[in-house]
Specification:
The protein is 52% helix and 4% strand. The protein is mainly alpha-helical and 320 residues long. It folds into three domains: 1-24 and 52-83; 118-182 and 271-313, Cytochrome c-like domain (Cytochrome Bc1 Complex, Chain D, domain 2, Orthogonal Bundle), CATH 1.10.760; 193-268, Orthogonal Bundle (Cytochrome Bc1 Complex, Chain D, domain 2). β1 (39-43) and β2 form a beta hairpin. It binds heme C (2 copies). One heme C binds at residues 135, 138-139, 141-143, 153-156, 158, 163-165, 172, 175-176, 180, 182, 241, 269-272, 274, 286, 290. One heme C (HEC) is lined by residues 135, 138-139, 141-143, 153-156, 158, 163-165, 172, 175-176, 180, 182, 241, 269-272, 274, 286, 290.
Length: 320
Amino acid sequence: MSDFWSGWIMGLVVLNMGITLFLFIWAQRVQIPTQPDGTSGHIWASGLREGVRPLPRWWALFSAACFVWAIAYLVLYPGFGAYKGLIGWSAHAELASDTAANDAKLDPVLKGFDGRSIEELAKTPEATRIGHRLFVDNCAACHGLDARGVRAVGGADLTDAHWLWGGTPQAIVTTILDGRTGVMPPFGAMLDAKAIEDLANYVLSLSDSPHSSEKAAAGKAHFTVCAACHGPDGKGNPALGAPDLTAKRRLYGERLADIEFTIQHGRTGTMPAWRQRLGEADVRLVAAWVYAQSPHDSPPASVAASAAAPASAPASAPAR
Ligand code: HEC
Ligand code: HEC
């Protein structure tokens, strides 16, 4: 705090306390002219006569105690401009000592997780409990409390068997540590409206969703440029974050118009990086919780598993 502002605050404190103290003492001493009937003689418009009563004693004592307390506080604690107070308390120091105490309590617990694999942590309730808390605090805004994704921000569904960037423990940890940006280029300049509509119908056909088979057949011819990223069968490519187009539930909506919009204007879904904010130990815990939310049996069984797992059962419902 600069000297000017420190002085400014000190001035205000002295002025404020001075005025209240003066009023307090003055009010004890001032003599109000009193009529023989104990009133001030003033009669209010409604006919009420104004009485004269001394302040109750408890009130005066209580106020005096407040002044003593206020002055003692300003002597002991920071509050009077830049003056630090006699006992040297500060909010920063208290935070630091609370944090240190918390770390001391938590460190042994976290140490126990060192060197354990994400799969193991995903089966350890103490680990997933902390992971879940971290998720609620940091991730739920975009992925939802239930991890099923918040459509408006393109936050991916983390509970299904379809992964943009891969669902192995290592892929999930990398995604969270360093973030990801999926780049779906805009094709509005390259394809006309009919080609886009045909392609969108073809995309719908890949997930067995209602579509026009005539348009889908026409769209298939254009799909070669898409196959470079989404694969010839549309199953996606985790190296590029290209989604599996055969999935019923989509990042950006299941309607024909949603898909046409994506093809025309492109998309750049961005998952922020957490290495700095959370650090590796916490990222491993939240990754373990995320890993525990999705079906991940032996890879070929993933489709069956996604149909059987209760968490992803309503996946085909147009939730949001
Ligand atoms: C600001 C919004 C936002 C926040 C906060 C956020 N994410 Fe994401 N996350 C996204 C988006 C958007 C994507 C999809 C990226 C893409 O389109 O390629 C994503 C993708 C992911 C993926 C990859 C999914 C897949 O299918 O491969 C994982 C895993 C993930 N997030 C976990 C987390 C975790 C854990 C946290 C909290 C530490 C978190 N996210 C916080 C927006 C967010
Ligand atoms: C350069 C690689 C690339 C090409 C080429 C490409 N895509 Fe994509 N596509 C992506 C990526 C990456 C995403 C995910 C975008 C995101 O995460 O925000 C995506 C997303 C989509 C989505 C949204 C899926 C969802 O879940 O909502 C659709 C639909 C789609 N692409 C269709 C197409 C079609 C049709 C073509 C061909 C005209 C095409 N893409 C060409 C990379 C590509």
